[in-house]
């Protein structure tokens, strides 16, 4: 639910306010159903839940040829939640869905904040690789061989992710992307 919540809050925020159908269309355009495993119904549920939690406000608008529509806007609490979810997704390992959602909303952070959380991910991945290497070099004889092979697969994924995270941190340090504290960011555009 966190990845869906993050993406819903982010799209509503970036839109300056949106209807459920707009949020759904935007996320479908991003192909979020693939990389964030979002189902259309979960978008509407996330909007209602975020409104109930005080992260979004709801404004009824007359429909042009049908029932009223609900326009959602992000509250200050919702912006804070969104930023914290991006931070959490960047530093938490073993949750690719949340990482993908956090990357999609990366510009919600200041440059220094983004670098700090990506670097925290780097440190966690490095520590996990050391632990995995030790475990693989001194395996418990009771652990089946195919499980040890699975650890090799995980270590390969972790090495690739580590390389990617280091590269992202470097690109951010070199000025990649328009971040929250840059001119022209979502914070400075009206």
UniProtKB/TrEMBL annotation:
- Pfam families recorded: PadR (PF03551)
Q: Which Gene3D superfamilies match?
A: Winged helix-like DNA-binding domain superfamily/Winged helix DNA-binding domain (1.10.10.10)
Ranges of residues in domain Transcription regulator PadR N-terminal: 8-82
Q: InterPro entries attached here? A: Metal_resp_DNA-bind_regulator, Tscrpt_reg_PadR_N, WH-like_DNA-bd_sf, WH_DNA-bd_sf
What protein does this entry describe?
PadR family transcriptional regulator
What broad taxonomic lineage does this protein's source fall under? Bacteria, Bacillati, Actinomycetota, Actinomycetes, Propionibacteriales
């Amino acid at each position: 639910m966190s990845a869906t919540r993050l993406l819903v809050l982010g799209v509503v925020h970036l839109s300056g306010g949106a209807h459920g159908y707009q949020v759904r269309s935007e996320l479908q355009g991003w192909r979020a159903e693939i990389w964030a495993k979002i189902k259309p119904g979960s978008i509407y549920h996330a909007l209602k839940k975020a409104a109930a939690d005080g992260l979004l406000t709801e404004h009824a608008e007359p429909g042009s040829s049908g029932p009223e529509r609900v326009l959602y806007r992000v509250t200050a609490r919702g912006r804070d939640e969104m930023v914290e979810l991006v931070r959490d997704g960047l530093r938490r390992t073993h949750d690719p869905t949340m990482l993908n959602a956090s990357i999609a909303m990366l510009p919600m952070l200041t440059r220094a904040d983004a670098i700090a959380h990506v670097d925290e991910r780097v440190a966690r991945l490095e520590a996990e690789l050391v632990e995995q290497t030790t475990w693989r070099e001194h395996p418990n004889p009771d652990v089946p061989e195919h499980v040890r092979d699975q650890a090799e697969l995980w270590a390969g994924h972790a090495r690739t992710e580590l390389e990617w995270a280091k590269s992202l941190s470097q690109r951010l340090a070199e000025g990649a992307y328009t971040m929250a504290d840059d001119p022209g960011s979502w914070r400075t555009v009206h």
